[in-house]
Amino acid sequence: MRNITCIEDLRQLARRKVPRAFFDYAEAGSYAQETLRANRAHLERIKLRQRVLVDVDERDTSTTIVGEKVSLPLALGSVAMTGLKHGNGEILACRAAHAAGTQFTLSTMSICSIEDVASAVGKPFWFQLYVMRDRGFVRSLIERAAAANCSALVLTVDLPLLAQRHCDVKNGLSVPPAMKMKNLINMASKPGWVFSVLSGKRWTFGNLAGHVKGMEGVKSLAQWTSTQFDPTLSWKDVEWIRSIWPRKLIIKGILDIDDAKLAAKTGASAIVVSNHGGRQLDGAPSSITMLPKIADAVGADIEVMFDGGIRSGQDMMRALALGARSCLIGRAYIFGLGAGGQAGVAIAIDILKKELDVTMALCGVKSIKEIDHGVIAQV
Ligand code: GLV
Q1: Which of 83, 141, 338, 339 could disulfide-link 10, Cβ–Cβ 3.0 to 4.6 Å?
Q2: pTM for the full model?
Q3: Separation of 79 CA from ligand 1 center, angstroms?
């Protein structure tokens, strides 16, 4: 992986290496992808304030996220089916995150199970929870995450049902991949991927298979969500989850001031301002436009995290300046994983960290706690 200098390079490499259905799945937004595009466009229109003749020799990107020490204000967010972008993808991404001094979130809809990841990595990771109608199963997932020593539970609240991503329908996305001629031809041109996934030995939803009756017949996230996800999910359920989960709770998928205020009252440790990477409500505002309003509304009542279009350290700077304490990435590390497994994820994190470090210097700040509205240019 020589000559990789930015996240876009990883994206292009991943596009060549990962079968189309799985690459498209990660990259796409819902419906007309208006919100997906707005996430990026609105980050780019925020201009940073260039400062000069400030001593910026000693810089430090380290901080904490929900009390955990991290080497940069960034953690890897949950992405479904990560183990089908690269064999054992969840384990590899978690190892890369830990080696870089940050955290990894394992999706409920992962390929490697909670137990697979726990036995392969040395340190606690975070677990992302989707709430299904079968509350007994939800309870058992929470108990499994607790038994695996997960240090935080990331409750996703913006997916009571799955919004359509047109490409998944058109590509016939399924898990494991359907052995149709079109897919076979596409996979045959990706030998590295075939090797990694076959040697990974896992190609179904690891947290569900063997734990849920009838799971054997479930082939897609869309199918599973439409039958099993609970659209009655409400704030009462957040209370219930808080009562059975012993550690930090992060509520992910807040995009509204009133919802943010309600979340701050739950006793959760953090919220993630997010529109699910433009994959759910198409037509919703970009995450970055809502971030400052939400951060102002909750003040110090709850830690504010951000996700939605981060592709550079400059983007991280923008989010931190507008009220986030830290950021999550999804696609940015998934591109790294598809491009080069664990090393690719490590490169993605390293690129973002170096870009943030240089951006801090050029904005005249030396530590994360110094970053505020003052680094935004008034243009
Ligand atoms: C699931 O979380 C998805 O966005 O596909």
Answers
A1: 339
A2: 0.95
A3: 7
